[in-house]
Specification:
The chain is an alpha/beta fold. The protein has two domains: about 5-145 and about 290-319, Rossmann fold; about 150-290, Rossmann fold. It has nine helices and 14 strands. It has helices spanning about 15-25, 65-80, 110-120, 150-160, 175-185, 225-240, 255-265, 290-305, 310-319; strands at about 5-10, 30-35, 40-45, 55, 85-90, 125-130, 145, 165-170, 190-200, 200-210, 215-225, 245-250, 270, 285-290. The strands form three sheets. It has a seven-stranded mixed beta sheet, with helices on both faces. A five-stranded parallel beta sheet has the order 1-4-5-6-7, sandwiched between helices. β8 (about 165-170), α5 (about 175-185) and β9 form a beta-alpha-beta unit. α1 (about 15-25) packs across α8 (about 290-305) and α4 crosses α5 (about 175-185). The longest helix has 17 residues, at about 65-80. About 45% of the residues are buried.
């Protein structure tokens, strides 16, 4: 790596940022984040970034408001310090769930965030497995949208007998995502009919597809409260599945999610490290895959001007 490359981390997931740097063989660049007595954030870049290619790793995780604002201030500080190019690396973009106007007098917050990221100083964005692909189009700056699917393909091929497996989408909205995974792992797919009646409450009905006597792999972009998973497990057991395994890129695990997973008859849960997981949430049933190598290689290619699209082809060949 050349000395022109700098990687900084916000408070959202410094462990992932450190792993990315270790993969690249460089040190994490230094900045100071603190608060004034009135609770205002203070950010100071503690290295020379003039004419450097700079990447800032900051997922939108809890406390989301603080982490979003911190990213904006870091981006602005880097721009003021004359960085040549600034890439906002947002492994988990939580506002991707706010992608449409589905109620009166609301904000399409995903689009607002895209505008603010550019205004704060980002020249491009690097993210992974957006909840809605439409959010990619909200940005007026280049976006590299990665997927963790190859990691899940390799994991389930190694740890699960797939001869009788089926991929399950928990609703019609997730069918496209689950379909990409099913195609990559060469398995049939089933879809559960779901109706969301509140943020944490869903109602499910019939299963479209053959799941009786099969090993189900539920594939999602994220696990938040675990409400959808809990309902899906009941639906699949009623349909006669043999076992249930879950793969989700973002293990948000808010509220009662961990308890629901541990107490449920789910056989295994696999997530990635896009979201930092404290020790108390690391249970035996939950497996964490590191996506640092993919982010590191993507950052290297962006820095050197190589094709990022070709990276996807290479990971697909590996899987």
């Amino acid at each position: 790596m050349t000395i022109d490359l700098k990687i900084f981390s916000g408070s959202g997931n410094p462990e992932l940022a450190t792993s990315i740097c270790e993969t690249l063989g460089i040190g994490l660049s230094r900045l100071e984040v603190s608060r004034f007595s009135n609770d205002n954030l203070f950010v100071q870049i503690q290295e020379n970034v003039r004419e450097k290619d700079v990447f800032v790793v900051q997922p939108f995780t809890a406390p989301v408001g603080d982490n979003v604002l911190e990213l904006f201030i870091i981006l602005d500080a880097l721009r003021s310090a004359s960085a040549r190019r600034i890439t906002a690396v947002i492994p988990y973009f939580s506002y991707a769930r706010s992608d449409k106007k589905d109620a009166p007098r609301i904000s399409i917050a995903g689009r607002l965030m895209a505008d603010l990221i550019k205004t704060a100083g980002a020249n491009r964005v690097l993210t992974m497995d957006l909840h809605s692909d439409a959010v990619h189009g909200f940005f007026s700056i280049p976006v590299d949208h990665l997927t963790a699917i190859p990691y899940f393909v390799n994991h389930f091929r190694e740890h699960l007998d797939l001869t009788n497996a089926v991929v399950v989408a928990t609703d019609a909205g997730g069918a496209k995502r689950a379909g990409r995974f099913a195609m990559r792992i060469h398995l049939p797919m089933a879809i559960i009919d779901k109706r969301r009646i509140a943020d944490t409450e869903v109602v499910q009905g019939l299963v479209v597809g053959e799941v009786k006597g099969r090993d189900a792999i539920i594939f999602e972009d994220e696990i938040s409260t675990g409400g959808t998973l809990a309902a899906s497990v009941k639906t699949l057991h009623a349909a006669g599945v043999n076992s249930i395994h879950v793969g989700a890129t973002h293990g948000v695990f808010c509220g009662p999610a961990v308890e629901r997973l541990v107490e449920s008859p789910i056989d295994s849960v696999v997530v990635t490290d896009t979201v930092y997981m404290p020790q108390e949430k690391k249970k035996e049933k939950i497996r964490i895959l590191s996506v640092a190598p993919m982010f590191a290689e993507t950052i290297r290619r962006i820095h050197t001007g190589e094709s990022v699209g070709a990276l996807f082809d290479e990971f697909e060949q590996q899987s």
